[in-house]
From TrEMBL, chains A, B:
PANTHER family: MARR FAMILY REGULATORY PROTEIN (PTHR33164:SF99), TRANSCRIPTIONAL REGULATOR, MARR FAMILY (PTHR33164). Gene3D superfamilies: Winged helix-like DNA-binding domain superfamily/Winged helix DNA-binding domain. This is MarR family transcriptional regulator. CDD domains: HTH_ARSR. Pfam families: MarR_2. InterPro entries: ArsR-like_HTH, HTH_MarR-typ, MarR/SlyA-like, WH-like_DNA-bd_sf, WH_DNA-bd_sf.
Amino acid sequence: MEDVLRSLGFLCLGSRMKRIGEQLQADTQRVLDRLDVRIQSSQYPLLAALDRLGPLPVGELAQSLDVAQPGVTRSVALLAELGLVEVRPSDDDQRRRIVSLSRNGRRLVDQAKRDVWPSIENAVADLCADLSGPLLGQLAAIEDRLAATPLDRRAENAKVAAS
Amino acid sequence: MEDVLRSLGFLCLGSRMKRIGEQLQADTQRVLDRLDVRIQSSQYPLLAALDRLGPLPVGELAQSLDVAQPGVTRSVALLAELGLVEVRPSDDDQRRRIVSLSRNGRRLVDQAKRDVWPSIENAVADLCADLSGPLLGQLAAIEDRLAATPLDRRAENAKVAAS
DNA sequence: CAATGTTATATATCAAGTTATCGTTATGCG
DNA sequence: CGCATAACGATAACTTGATATATAACATTG
């Protein structure tokens, strides 16, 4: 069966990148699922932003992640529900709500940085190894490689290789 | 403000590709809005598939676009509502429902192929021109270029240049 | 040939992004 | 000072992907 998106080339690059991104996130989710961490892979960038940049108001968090503000509001509500982040009003501006990692959030991030993120990073690096040349070709290679060996399998292998 | 996704590199490649893809789709939408048919840019790949491959049952359409079947069912229902595609049961298998372009759908695709798709393709090609090297670098370049000149502006310029 | 299993599609629900808009709090100027 | 405007975050509605499951038609086999 012809892969139409691929045949269309530049015309559908947006759909195609979105499709690959979703696949990567889904695979990453499967890696995270095995490690009894109960949040969606899409929440990690927010936690990583707080880890890297420290406590931030909602708007700046949105900027640093380059997503729209309502998305951050929703994620923060979810993570606060889970006790991973805390929210407090700013001292000098009652409109701002400062988001920070809670004690549990701090622990989760530290654990992830130690136990999980390295193997994901290795798996993706493996996926993208030795790619060069035009973008469309690299994307096609990534699609083919993912179809052959999903990211979560690559993460396992990386862990085995490291041990 | 630091771009956290970019700093995280391979770790958040999925989120990042999704983000770029969404941006491209949104920009493309703005180009397509100039056609008086008000359908979403995300529907065009399905129309293009029918154009390239001819009438297809729902499942094969899903395969050729590499999306899950329920997504196709929904898109087809929407496009049928708009009178752009037609659905008829297969002769030899009453489970299959064959989707094809209607007269109006045919007209829309022909018009798009003539008037719109080329300028989108040129705009994206322009966006990706002279990119080479590692994937992450190319993605960063695309993000920077998009921020500097959105895709719809590039499409305009391409049209001017062609005339 | 009836029971059982398989396949194709539809439906329901969820996830995570978007835009538009609203209420509240700051700010700035006449 | 007081009011108009701007900024911040929350909420609503929508989009477009996903998965899980139900339904109906076909296939197989005992």
